[in-house]
Amino acid sequence: MVPVWSNAAKVFNISENLFAYDDALKNAFDGDKISKGKVNGYKPKGRNIVDKSGTRDGFESWVLPGDGIFQLGDVMFPHPPVVAASMGTLRALVSHLRFAADSIFKSLSTSLKLKPGQGFEDFHNTARPMPDVLRLLKYHADPRVGGAIPQTPHTDLGSLTFVLCTTPGLQVLSANVQSESGVPRTEFCWQYVEPREGCAVVNLGDCMTKMTNGLLKSALHRVGPLPGNPMPERYSLAYLMRPEGTTLLRTLDSPLIHPPAAEGTSVTCNEWMQNKFQAVRGNQHTGGDHVLTGGRSLMT
């Protein structure tokens, strides 16, 4: 992880420079305007809904598409000067993380005895266009103790997510947490993930859950302040590996994966992405909480 963290430190500097741009420039790269699939561009603070009372989020983000970084396909990749000047660093970081992802995919495919040509790595061919992204995030400080959680509890929509950060705040919820009488026990069960120097947190995403019929579980997580403390300013970066957009998210053939009782309508990775983005915005017509939390209705 040494090369990864060496480049990550440089990308954190890039991130600070990006978010230091004035609002007019940042809004010129608004992801809702320049990217149909939301795989490129800026998101301002407060765009997404955090809870059922309508509280707005407390972070900015900037998404950089893997296809744009490596100039694959015909993807449109408008970006500001600081990104253009840093393309070598961005390519180096993403290349190392893609190599790590490929190693994980191959190990899981072997462990699950997946057939040749049907391993996880076969759905993530980095030589072809796919919707993987590098996401840079800035969480704004909130001086209130016990203030609002700045991020919606969610699972990641892709396959693997590599999270790098030096500031505490990431929380995860065990897959074993259940609701009692329909009331989630979430506030008693969130566990903090302590950042460790030279290490990345690796999350499994919804696509892995769907392709293994729930054997591999995506982790429900969020970012928030430590107990009894206000929310500090916090920078993090996440590389989100996703299958190629046309990949059908169906149960793979393995002697270790139980087939579904009834094969429902399969969705592609691109379709699942769109449903997930709409759920983050509070659109209940896409399945709401079920989509947002990877099938666990725990948004409060």
UniProtKB/TrEMBL annotation:
<dbReference type="InterPro" id="IPR027443">
    <property type="entry name" value="IPNS-like_sf"/>
</dbReference>
<feature type="domain" description="Fe2OG dioxygenase">
    <location>
        <begin position="130"/>
        <end position="243"/>
    </location>
</feature>
<dbReference type="Pfam" id="PF03171">
    <property type="entry name" value="2OG-FeII_Oxy"/>
</dbReference>
<dbReference type="GO" id="GO:0016491">
    <property type="term" value="F:oxidoreductase activity"/>
</dbReference>
<comment type="similarity">
    <text>Belongs to the iron/ascorbate-dependent oxidoreductase family.</text>
</comment>
<dbReference type="InterPro" id="IPR050231">
    <property type="entry name" value="Iron_ascorbate_oxido_reductase"/>
</dbReference>
<protein>
    <recommendedName>
        <fullName>Fe2OG dioxygenase domain-containing protein</fullName>
    </recommendedName>
</protein>
<keyword id="KW-0408">Iron</keyword>
<keyword id="KW-0479">Metal-binding</keyword>
<keyword id="KW-0560">Oxidoreductase</keyword>
<dbReference type="InterPro" id="IPR005123">
    <property type="entry name" value="Oxoglu/Fe-dep_dioxygenase_dom"/>
</dbReference>
<dbReference type="GO" id="GO:0046872">
    <property type="term" value="F:metal ion binding"/>
</dbReference>
<dbReference type="InterPro" id="IPR044861">
    <property type="entry name" value="IPNS-like_FE2OG_OXY"/>
</dbReference>
